[in-house]
Amino acid sequence: KNEVEQSPQNLTAQEGEFITINCSYSVGISALHWLQQHPGGGIVSLFMLSSGKKKHGRLIATINIQEKHSSLHITASHPRDSAVYICAVKGSGNTGKLIFGQGTTLQVKP
Amino acid sequence: GAGVSQSPRYKVAKRGQDVALRCDPISGHVSLFWYQQALGQGPEFLTYFQNEAQLDKSGLPSDRFFAERPEGSVSTLKIQRTQQEDSAVYLCASSLLAENTGELFFGEGSRLTVL
Predict the structure, then answer these.
(1) Chain A: nearest CA to B50, how far in angstroms?
(2) Any idea what DSSP says for residue B86?
(3) pLDDT digits (tens, 9 = 90+) for B43-56
(4) Contact B56 A97 (CB under 8 A)
């Protein structure tokens, strides 16, 4: 079993829909990152969380440390949101390496 | 530069050749990471530098892989005697603070294809 699991693996939505991507992890962490990767492109950091909730534009990220679970929400989705969304955790007590989930491929149709 | 720069963006090598991949992190960033991303997979950790010190190389898959950051800025990932299974995108990331306690900035990656 992977230490970081994302669901769903693939998601297709219509423009305007509210989207949720989930991330569960099995290790103790000090921080969790949500990252975005466009096809053929680099990775962009969206959020770094250690507790609670963060909001940036139409994106919201939450984390529940006790339940070892995080969610990424996209409100009023748009075709330009189509990308791979990756959850990555920084374990507590290590030298900083991230453990990545497999990613969720999102396609938003107009 | 404004971001993390990697070169070359694309590299085709014949099996058995040595390759060198370069990463220019954001100026002043303490932490530098190398990750390997196979097609359709999430990135896998290779190695971590804090300034010039290689603090974690537990992810390097074999002794054919070697990384250095001699002056605490530019880093080079070297792969000797490349094999087909080395084909992947090699991602470099940097962070201002030690131990990845700050925001992480990724380069565009170097796509290696071994024939």
Answers:
(1) 9
(2) G
(3) 899 999 999 999 98
(4) yes
